[in-house]
Amino acid sequence: MSATIPAPATATATATATKNSTAGTKLSRRSHLAVYTLQILLAVFLGVASAAPKLIGHSSAAEGFDKIGYGDWYMYLVGGLELVGAIALVIPILSGLSALAFMGLMIGAFITQVTVFDGEYAITPVIFFVIFGGIAWVRRNHTAELVALVRKRL
Length: 154
Description:
Number of helices: 7
Largest sheet: none
Distance between the termini: 46 Å
Structural class: mainly alpha
Radius of gyration: 20 Å
Strand content: under 5%
């Protein structure tokens, strides 16, 4: 009985397999525009309605962060992260990574809602988590491009 040992995969074979596996995920122009429109709407919401009150120290944001107990520095940090993430959400090569980062932020927001605010609005971060998960999935090719670019530079 002789065992057949497969030949090692070459770079060309790997690249072809990768290309074929992502070929089925190509979005139609209409779908791409719909997802990009969603990204823009989320970026505007996150930048204006969510980050701005934190960054200007609005009393409604300050009261919430005082209840959390980390002080003003944490409010400014979260506001800054939201603003940077909102900008990155509309930059094609950063959009997938931004959506992943927002998923992490939504996990923290959910935990905070449940532990500090008694779950009053706990569903909101869950909804955003799902939306950002969809964007991260659709834009996963951009994330792969970014990873390849960073690896190439290193």
